[in-house]
Queue: 3 jobs
Job 1
Amino acid sequence: MSNITASPAIGAPRSLSTGAIITALAVITVAALLPLMLSTYHLGLATEVLIFGLLAMSIDILAGFAGRTSLGHGAIFGVSTYVVVYAVMTAGLSPLVACLLGVLAATALGAVFGLLAVRTSGVYFLLLTLALGMIVWGICLRWTQVTGGENGLRGAIRPALLSDYRAFYWMVLAVTAVLSLAIWRFVRSPFGLTLRGIRDSDSRMRSLGYDVSLHLFIGFTVSGLFAGAAGAMYALFNSFVSPSTVAVSQSVEALLMTIAGGVGTLFGAFVGSAAIIALENIASSYTERWQTVLGVTFILIMIFAPEGIVGTIRALVARLKH
Amino acid sequence: MSNIILSLTDVEVAFDALKAVNGVTIAVPKGERRAIIGPNGAGKTTLFNAITGVIQPTSGQIVFDGHTITRLPPHKRARLGISRTFQITNLFPTLTVGDNMILAVRGLSPRKFSLFGSPDADAGEARRIAAALEASRMHERANIPVKELSYGEQRQLEIALALVTEPRLLLLDEPAAGLSPAERSIVAEIIRSLGRELTVILIEHDMDLALGLVDFVTCLHEGQVLVEEPPSEIRNDQRVQEVYLGKPRHA
């Protein structure tokens, strides 16, 4: 008994180690210096890496910590993009209000998806979120008066303050850094622990008194909020939205970023996002069949590094330490 | 009657045409140690699932401590003080023993909804966790991931998870299944040392273990109560021996 009361922190150490804080600060510093080194084009790619990294991270909340892999997050992300572009161009709202509305819409959509999908798991969850995403895509394609149908919505919606591509990048970096920290804190909260419990055994969670569906619903809604934040930034970045932004391919690409970085590693999302965006751009400059290159790369990752880039590196480091 | 904590009246659980539990009526007094025995397929685990809410009875009534719980979902029954272990080990394998216990202790507290708070156990939680780990002889293993525990230790953790919420009714589904004789005696010792404010119902195939622990035995056979007797009489009961030792019976 005495050895336990002597150490009140039961469980693995959870506070940030000094090493982790230094690493995080170093990464953010390097990222903040990128605009001084990169061309406009490459800085645009870096901005995309951050935005899609945040989207991939929102998927990792569910895939990595609740054991529920979503194929509907592209739709949640894209709905936010639609709302932001529509709110500025058609409703004439300020970009800031538009972004808040976009995040709100994505959170609400996440809640609706959650409500419908939380009773399922495994491949059924995957298929249900896929189908829900396709419904959103269908609506965006057909509801022409509002969404502009196949032509989408276009317009310069970035506020004057952020019109400079460097200023915009720094804004995206700051927002992404803060939101990533929030996600990190969230999955390590008491609530985040309940998601990991559900991932490991939902029947045991029920018998311990947990309303598993309620927890998954909250998890899905929170995940939708972060996907929506990424979608709102994408609206400002792209100044254009069309059905392809909410399409299944968007969901798949974001999920592949999560997987490539490493499911359950959280920050691996940015590594996966960087790897895929870099690969897309390099491959597409050499061959028109760049999607084939992408496909083959995924197969190789799934076979040789199923834990993703960051997951594999972590495992190697752990082995070296032993 | 007021000292009856759990009563089942004519409970039936049917899977299509198969009546796994077929009209069972049982009353368990507060603080009793009760064994439920019976050959494979007698309906023991199905009966547990009906009591804990994993499956709902097709008909009949279940009353726990004055509440009719027949149709309640499992998490609401847990809130009333019903706790269980699983026949097939059902833990959180990727989490540490400590995190397993934290999840168990918070199942009934609002702190499980804290979205950005500290995940560590507070003083009150730590005390209850320590007591449950102590009671199940697991107190030196708190920081080890569950998948690295031995099977015997995992079975002990099963009991610790069920105890930490301080339940009033504990259902143990074959707690000693697959254990070595030495590990069995640890589990028997754990069960024997539980306080009498707790009512315990036990499914167990090991007769020596079960009969040495309980006050009363219910023997199920083909979904029905065959006999209810104290352990001293059950050993010599003709009907119990027949269902176990295979008097020819229709399939």
Job 2
Amino acid sequence: MTTVPGSTAMTLDISQTERVPFSRLVHVELRKMVDTRAGRWLLISIAALTALVLVIQLWVVLAQDQTVGFNDFAAGANIPMNILLPVLGVMSVTSEWSQRTAMVTFSLEPSRSRFLAAKYVGTLIMALIAVVLGLALTIGANGLYAAFSDNQVTWNLGPFQLFCFFLLYVFSMSTGFAFGMLLLNTAAAIVVYFVYSFVLPGLFELGSALMGWFKDIRPWIDFNNAQNPIIEADVTGKEWAQLLTSGLIWLVLPLLIGVWRVLRAEVK
Amino acid sequence: MIKVEGLTRVYGSFTAVDDISFTCRPGTVTGFLGPNGAGKTTTMRVMVGLTPATRGDVTIGGLHFHDIPNPGRHVGVLLDASAQHAGRTGREVLTLGAQTMGLPMSRVDEMLELVSLDETESRRRIRNYSLGMRQRLGIAHALLGDPSVLILDEPANGLDPAGIRWMRGLLKGYADRGGTVLLSSHLLHEVEQIADEMLLIGRGKIVARGSKAELLANAGGAGTLVTALDHDQLTGALTDRGLSFVPVADGIRVDAQPVDVGRLAAERSIVLTELRTASGGLEDLFLELTADTQRDDVSAAPAPEGASL
């Protein structure tokens, strides 16, 4: 106890207490992602589905004797990651609200900006783990392909390729994180994310088919589409610019509004 | 240690907390009493920065909650025992708290033992906890960092009578060691035995404050509950003496001290079968003081004269 027994001092002696170090906050946030059944199974599902997609892909290309490269397997692994990593991003934020643990969290770290930063760094670390995992599975798939196929096998895996891998997963995770903060409700955030991710591209497609002017601006505002060059790991200067403008709309803007909301929201 | 000054919180046209001020001193237990929706929880939420104040100020040990480094080590908070992830185990909740605060893991076991949650219970998920177990876990969490200030919202809610007695002992001992305790309740009997100081709140305003004795004195003294073999004889004697009384279930409630009623009965040779201080004295006061703020009509109970609101 910080009060000397019997003393009636009306002030707290905080001279011996340090702020909670940021690394400890990140550590706790990472732990929260895996210490519930929901969180643990989500991680296991991500790994299992990625492996499953690669097995199917491998099976199909071997059966049909197609020629594929490392990139094709990487694109395959990206499909489940792109669907489920955002869910992880969403849940890391919204579970604090839907399960109302934010009340307890904020009573131990009242600075919400530090809390959000720790949570975000936690999700980035998860994205990094996902990259390593996705990469390992992709290498495994390509290795099996090399063993069973007589076709030419490619191992084009440079630092830029790795960087693109990471960027893609960070985008997925961050978009989920942003939508989570924006809505503070798991179901709503996931639904909105899926609309954004699966319905919106169709609308963009339709729009550019019907309207010429829309076709011209679409590459600059369609974040999903702008990520395709990254999946291919072949990005031109113009494509970087398109990634930037569309990313400002679909990632940075929701992140900013989301942060603003969490900093102000009354925790019920 | 806790200082609330002119605190007001407005939601649209609804004033949840209306210009309240009070102080909680080290070494004391302050009971925060009021009917549901009176503003107790809002006040406590403002204290720990979950809700911004519309006007006024709250400091703990001279600091705003936001400025206390590693606040769990100084201020133990339990606002809602059910505000925990249903999928985490009790032990995991305490582990997360201990890790955030930078405490050794042995502290988790100590706290589990303190609140009598055994090994098996601590490894169960919270969705399988009873409300009483959640309260125990919440109290363990609040005490985890060995704080000098405790802020507990309805901690006795869901505890069985033995649990309530245990909590009383725990908080009393904690205050005796110099800690500051603020606990809220909507049930008077939960706090009247341990609170050194009571704050009665109704519709966002503090309607009365003081120790139990002071509150009763302000209410015009404690009443007496008396039963006699012959009630008519007794009521006749009370009327002669000019004492006001009301018939209650199986006796008479007199606005006088038991000694006066006993003396009167002895003078008139009235056989009494029961004579005691009306235990509902404070309860009545509580209901009366907050009468216009109650959801249920308790106007049947007349307001005591001279009660200073």
Job 3
Amino acid sequence: MMPLLEVSGITKRFGGLLAVSDVGFTVGEREILGLIGPNGAGKTTLFNLVNGVIKPDKGTVKFCGQDITSHPPNEVVHLGLARTHQIVKPLHGMSVLENVIVGACFGRDYLHLRPARKVAMEVLERVNLADHSDKAASSLTIAGKKRLEVARALAANPKLLLLDEVLAGLNPTEIEYMIGIVRGIRDSGISVFMIEHVMQAIMSLSDRLVVLSFGQKLAEGTPLEVARDPQVIEAYLGDPDIATKLKEKN
Amino acid sequence: MILRHPVLYIILAFAAIMVWLPLHGNNVSLREDLILVAIAVILASNLNLMIGYTGYVNFGHIVFYGLGGYIGLYLAAEKGWNLVLAALLAGVGVSLFALVLGLGILRLRGAYFALATIGILVAVQSFVANFDPWGRSTGLYVSFDAYEKLGGARHALWVTYFLVIAVMALSMILSLGIKMSKFGLGLFAIREDEGAAVVLGVNTTVYKAIIYSVSAFLPAVAGALMFYKNGMIDPSIAFEFMLSLEGIVMLMLGGKGTVIGAALGGGLYEKLRSYLLTSPKLSNFHLVIAGGLLLVVVLFAPGGLIGWLYKAVPRSRKVLE
């Protein structure tokens, strides 16, 4: 079967820094692919290359069989590839509902205002923000803003969702809630490609993992395979027994 | 949707009052006062589309008004066109000019965009001051018999007044329509965070160019009418930088981003300005007041009068756009 997203040989250089170097991977239908790696490994840059925020120097990005390399982000969303931001970007002066309506209006279905409002309300229910729909987006807590990011991206009715550290900065209860949301997203038929530092969560959520270090792909495989990989342990995890420990915890 | 919006009826009532006031008792001097108020409302409302809706500060907005004046006067007075047709063509021409210009300069953000708009104003002014068909620095004049077509000069002044009021009402209705539309939602997203807007799917390049072009249309039409009424135009009065700045003061005073606020600020500021200009002690002092006013508004009431009203009476937010 054709993969939903196919990235090959993607490379980006910022001046003297090779931010992402010859990285390739695929995301299949109904799959959760995790992306992990130390700070500065190039994870967010890789996201930016995939959804067109920055243009790669080399390599291609294919989505649903179509070459979307260097397409601007707004076109990428119309094709069904939405994303959230690590540093949340709410539209501050607008209400929570309006934020999500923007997502629905300019997403894959390019809805009119009235149907967009309906979709937005449904999505807000899904991430448990419906009670806050009339509040200003700027008044939400960090957990609320992270959920708003997810809601906005979901409102675009994507086939693939890129989640950039949606668990960072959340407390354990909030993390658990968000994990439930992500599982729900996958169960509704949307593939997920997510960056995460909360190891326990990413290990249990992901079907497969890609490990990035200094812009290069260090390893790829199931969470257990990756966690046992000596290179990954040295570069990132730091504890040879982490795989068994995490497994026991789950 | 828009037909059911209370603000639409506020706009129509406002326009009706503006028509009735000078007509009642044939008060010519009041008419001359009110036409300036209407022009201020037109400029502030259309500037609001850029500053208030899209978040791009345009310091050279007056360039559209001046260019519209030139095109309109040239066609109506020199070429003998019908005034309404000349004004409409001025609007279309200036809008197209803005569209092409916008696709270029709207790549700039923040202070760089603002600087570019000042550059455009200065460049257009110098160009016109050296453009032969438009009379270089002496400008263009309307010969007295050109008014004959509108039934003589006295009648022509009334006709242009009603047309300007119509343009004023259209400016406000346009602002309201955009605010209630999906297009407007995209603009607000750009204002709040352009990076987020593009990732959410808003074609920011096209949206910005369109609104820049739209914000040029009615000021250009108004310029054509106003300078025709005045009977003359020259580069220094057509492209007056101060008027451009005062437009920003009006908008901040009333409340940027709101339909009523832009109009309120435009109207109030113009009344204040004409009072100061005509008072013997304070004449030429109005710019000092404008500067002080801007400072006070930005520091203490960034939402302007309407923002203040929203805070004082939260319910008003639902009614007044």
